[in-house]
Amino acid sequence: MKTAIVLGATGGTGQVIVSELLTRGINVTAFGRSERKLGALLKQHDFNPLLSYVVGDIFDPGTIVEAAKNAEVIFQCANVSYQEMASKLLLLGESVMMAADRLGKKIVIVDGIYVYGHQVAKGDESHPKQPHTKKGKLRLEFENLIFNNKWMKANPLIVRLPDYYGATSQNAYLQPTLEGIAANKKSVFIGNLKTPREYVYLPDAAQMIVNIAERDDAYGENWNIPGAGLISGKDIIQLAREITGYRKSVIPLNKTAIRLMGMFDPFMREVVEIMYLTKEGFVLSGEKYEKSIGTIPITPFKKGLEETFRALMPDGH
């Protein structure tokens, strides 16, 4: 791969994939709707000559076709908010796949684990897809759209991430916790503090995603992107205290609290049905990746949190 385009390049996963591609000497086009954010991304990379940007609408396949015509691989990292998922997710899928099909391109779709529903088996790519939530059912429709036979020339694959964290993270479940600690304010934790859960450090995820994208035989399939093992909220907060010296309280938010907050906050209203993951967790298997591609990159939680707080804290450390 010598050229790539990243759709949703200023988002949490988009930014780390841009960074990973540039690290490998790949020419990257960053695609997004905000010229201000795209300009900031260029500045962040010291105006690297390998990086350019196009302002465009993810729901306009013609715009994507024009921007992606010289790219070998399209990385689809754009997303829609929880509140807009029912009305916009499938439109997004249709748009990006139409563009990839017109161009006959490889396309890497970044997605999550809602399609699986409750964990009933080992979390590999053959885990039953039995979603019991509206979002999970929509995500399954989305997958079926991506792999639909009507696309004669597009060559897609889907990568699935668990909860994640990192300096570029924006809408993750851990984000309010880490931002509150970084600002030295009372903070909250979505879910209970005892359940061990899986989180992937975003730069690790980007490395795995690009490794997968470089393999011709990886397309047409789902790929799970595992994290660095399990960790409870209590242990995350303890590590955060050691790193930052934070001494204030962190309040766990259970389903009832989230439901009450949802009366005033449309995002929190949508979080309620996904709270099962904060209680049960879901562990992804990396066996397919290890067997097909190699060693899974794992940044220890403490190091990942140190790097995240370095970006989040006003004084930089």
TrEMBL record:
Domain NAD-dependent epimerase/dehydratase: 5-225
UniProt GO molecular function: aldehyde dehydrogenase (NAD+) activity
Protein name as catalogued: Epimerase
Organism domain of life: Bacteria
UniProt-listed InterPro entries: Epimerase_deHydtase, NAD(P)-bd_dom_sf, NAD(P)-dependent_oxidoreduct
GO cellular component terms given for this protein: cytoplasm
